[in-house]
């Protein structure tokens, strides 16, 4: 019996007290909108039926964490344990769990995959019917597994909550992975990189030799470029307000760049249409602005062009299209939640491609910090200095 198994046998079935003094474990709690996270003692309940408790090894910071950390009104809730890109080890399992065991290395993922409902067994969708994706502060059963030492409930985030050394996740939101992949690379597949790569691979199904336009060269947009590169796309046009993104984008396969702030009197869509002789085959909106979705739709090619929406816009944002354009131009537009990937079947494929040196995860990691430096990770992302900052729980 190894040390990890011995450790887990002592805590299985019992509440775990996460201590801020680091002798045991800790949680970083968002107490107020936009305020630094507070590393403090919390209590993590045992897993209920169909759940597992996971000891987080490392977690990475996604801009969605920033977005919800800034919000003051629902779907923002405080106090909350944010974080949703992570990898860890199963510490204990609840009743009815047979596919996971103590010590399994797993990636918790916000996208449910029960692997049994009509949608999960179909190749046409990755939207689970049994456990629908919702932006909720609770577990699937409408309760929390976190409390502070005063007994106050702490809210969950996207069914994961990884900014804590222990979290509880439903098995529909956990994917088992091989231990051969380094944890500081595996955690990237929980959200951002998978979403972008999957959008090109699965949602758009881009063909070799096609032309792609990507609005926004943040980590999601660069992951789209990486996915397009893997699919053999010949021309990848990046659009961003920061011209320095072109040099960054070249490492991910970006071949052309449009600075949207230097386009003069022309709309960006006009420039793309001129560059491509009528529009890109595939356009990806990765920022989360209705106006950019409309621009992307305006510069995808008539007849077969596809616009894929990945960016998370503000609540209540609406899109406006002319009925004529939709009907007569033959274009399509679709959303891409988690890149259209099915976590339990597609994440192992991405891991294999990484281990075979095809998918280049390494270049997404720009910083690595200890858990005590988690607020530094927030600063790096807010200042535009980081693509992905990996946060180690035990460094």
Automatic annotation (TrEMBL):
Domain Alcohol dehydrogenase-like C-terminal, first and last residues per copy: 220-351
Cited InterPro entries: ADH-like_C, ADH-like_N, ADH_Zn_CS, GroES-like_sf, NAD(P)-bd_dom_sf
GO process terms (BP): formaldehyde catabolic process
Co-factor requirement: Zn(2+)
Molecular function terms from GO: S-(hydroxymethyl)glutathione dehydrogenase [NAD(P)+] activity; zinc ion binding
Assembly description: Homodimer.
Family the UniProt entry places it in: Belongs to the zinc-containing alcohol dehydrogenase family. Class-III subfamily.
Protein's name in the database: Alcohol dehydrogenase-like 7
């Amino acid at each position: 019996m190894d040390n990890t198994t011995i450790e887990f046998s002592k805590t299985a079935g019992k509440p775990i007290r996460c201590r801020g003094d680091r002798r045991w474990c800790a949680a970083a709690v968002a107490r107020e909108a936009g305020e630094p996270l507070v590393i403090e003692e919390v209590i993590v309940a045992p897993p209920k039926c169909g759940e597992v408790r996971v000891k987080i090894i490392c977690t990475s910071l996604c801009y969605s964490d920033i977005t919800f950390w800034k919000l003051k009104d629902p779907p923002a809730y405080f106090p909350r344990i944010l974080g949703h890109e992570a990898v860890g080890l199963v510490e204990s399992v609840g009743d009815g769990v047979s596919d996971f065991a103590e010590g399994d290395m797993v990636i918790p993922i916000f996208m449910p995959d029960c692997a049994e409902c009509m949608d999960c067994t179909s190749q046409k969708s990755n939207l689970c019917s049994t456990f629908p994706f919702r932006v909720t502060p609770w577990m699937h059963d409408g309760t929390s597994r976190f409390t502070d030492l005063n007994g106050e409930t702490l809210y969950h985030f996207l069914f994961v909550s990884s900014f804590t050394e222990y979290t509880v996740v439903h098995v529909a939101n956990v994917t088992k992975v091989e231990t051969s992949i380094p944890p500081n690379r595996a955690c990237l597949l929980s959200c951002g990189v998978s979403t972008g790569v999957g959008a090109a691979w699965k949602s758009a199904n881009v063909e070799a030799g096609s032309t792609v336009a990507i609005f926004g060269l943040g980590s999601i947009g660069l992951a789209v470029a990486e996915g397009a590169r893997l699919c053999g796309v010949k021309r990848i046009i990046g659009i961003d307000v920061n011209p320095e993104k072109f040099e960054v984008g070249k490492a991910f396969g970006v071949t052309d760049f449009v600075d949207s702030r230097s386009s003069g009197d022309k709309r960006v869509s006009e420039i793309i249409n001129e560059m491509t002789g009528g529009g890109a085959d595939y356009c990806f909106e990765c920022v989360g602005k209705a106006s950019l979705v409309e621009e992307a739709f305006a510069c995808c090619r008539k007849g077969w062009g596809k616009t894929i929406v990945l960016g998370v816009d503000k609540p209540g944002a609406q899109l406006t299209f002319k009925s004529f354009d939709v009907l007569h131009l033959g274009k399509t537009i679709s959303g891409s939640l988690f890149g259209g990937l099915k976590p339990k079947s597609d994440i192992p494929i991405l891991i294999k491609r990484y281990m075979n040196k095809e998918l280049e995860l390494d270049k997404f990691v720009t910083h690595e910090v200890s858990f005590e430096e988690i607020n530094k990770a927030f600063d790096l992302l807010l200042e535009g200095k980081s693509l992905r900052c990996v946060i180690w729980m035990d460094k």
